[in-house]
Amino acid sequence: MAQSLNPTNYSIYAIPATYGLAVMPMVYAFSTMMRASNYQWSNAAPRQNFEALKGKVPQETWDKCFRAYGAHLNGLESFPLFAAAVLAGNLAKLPASEMNSFAAQYIGFRILYSGLYIFNRSSEKLAYVRTGVWYWSLALPVLTLIHAGNKLSL
Q1: 81 Cβ neighbours under 8 A, 6+ residues apart
Q2: What is the value of pTM for the model shown?
Q3: Spatial separation of the C-alpha atoms in residues 69 and 154, rounded to whole Å
Q4: Are 17 and 111 in contact (CB under 8 A)?
Q5: Among residues 17, 145, 137, 38, which one has the least CA distance to residue 86?
Q6: What gap in Å lies between CA 83 and CA 42, rounded to an integer?
Q7: Long-range contacts of 9-12 (CB under 8 A, 24+ apart)
């Protein structure tokens, strides 16, 4: 019974999970481009691969992999804000249920964002939905940082 009143705080574990989620679109892009290019992806100059393989793989494949690369970069760009919010929330001793909810929502929105980014080829409506998901995924850690700051300043 006491366990239900004091849930376990899993939010710290969300930090490596979220980093892994940021890397997954690049794993997808890498493996897809390797197959599509008959393994011509160069590990010696990895940041030049997309331009080097443009026109050598089907355009639809190249486009989807480049969008996956964009989702990967966006995940890495937003990761520090998320990690800071998790650490600040735990430092401020925000309730475990709140931290778990924040982490789960953030991860869910990042998965949705990546899917919308990678698999939407041309729908402007879905592109705007993706932008809304992105805004909310940034609002979550900002709100958690504010909540933590308010609690620490008391």
Answers
A1: 138, 141, 142
A2: 0.90
A3: 43
A4: no
A5: 145
A6: 32
A7: 9/90, 9/96, 9/99, 9/100, 10/96, 10/99, 10/100, 10/103, 11/86, 11/89, 11/90, 11/96, 11/99, 11/100, 11/102, 11/103, 12/86, 12/90
- Using alpha carbons only, what angle is made at residue 13 by residues 4 and 27, rounded to the nearest 5 degrees? 135
Q: What is the distance between the terminal CA atoms of the chain, rounded to a whole angstrom?
A: 31
The tokens for 100 are 């778990």
Residue whose pair of structure tokens reads 């998901």 in the numeric block:
133
Instruction: Name the percent of the chain lying above pLDDT 90.
Output: 86
The pLDDT assigned to 42 comes to 85
Instruction: Count the alpha carbons within 13 Å of 92 in the hemisphere toward its beta carbon.
Output: 21
Please list, in sequence order, all residues whose beta carbon lies within 8 angstroms of the beta carbon of residue 95, skipping any fewer than 6 positions away: none
